[in-house]
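User: Before I run my own analysis I want an independent prediction to cross-check against. Here's the chain; please return only the structure tokens and, at the end, one sentence I can use as a sanity check.
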Amino acid sequence: MYFVDIIDYIGTFAFAISGIRLASAKKVDWFGAYIVGLTTAIGGGTIRDLLLGITPFWMQQPSYLIVTAIALVCVILFSKHLVRLNNTFFIFDAVGLGLFVVVGIEKSLQQEFPFWVAIMMGMITGSAGGIMRDILIREIPLIFRKDIYAMACVIGGIVFILCRQTGVSPVLTQIVAASTVILTRVISVKYHLSLPSLKGNEDDESVNI
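Assistant: Structure tokens:
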């Protein structure tokens, strides 16, 4: 098993935990929580694979479904400790985001796409599952809020490409890129950093036809 495969499974588990934890706050049943967790874990990668013109990864390897089931069992067994932790969702989401960005970039480069496509695929792999999760539980997706979310993926992708072009070892490149995404998320939330909001005229909201 390659190091990137290990990252993929860890990212799947982390994103599944984040989705199931958030679903539990909405008091859905176990099956509903599993669906939300699975969507969070495989949603971004599925869109990525479809855009790259390849069979979605989870259709070739059932282990991703099993990992999500394990995540559900962990939340059920340790719900009193895990679900009630205020920072649990953020921590697992940040870790999953960073790891999936690396997976998306690596898979795109393996398919011989240019670096800018790889960065976009890394962003989609990391953030699209979270968007689908938030839509399922009727929350405003994180990517549309003031938090630096998708931009953290882009920053991590740029760091990945820079490390690759300067001869850094593949494993270290993956670690540095994933850590960059995670740290960007943590720092932006801790210090309330965000991109400037697009200012518009409130009158623009009403359009006469």
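Sanity check: Residues 134 and 140 are 6 Å apart (CA to CA).
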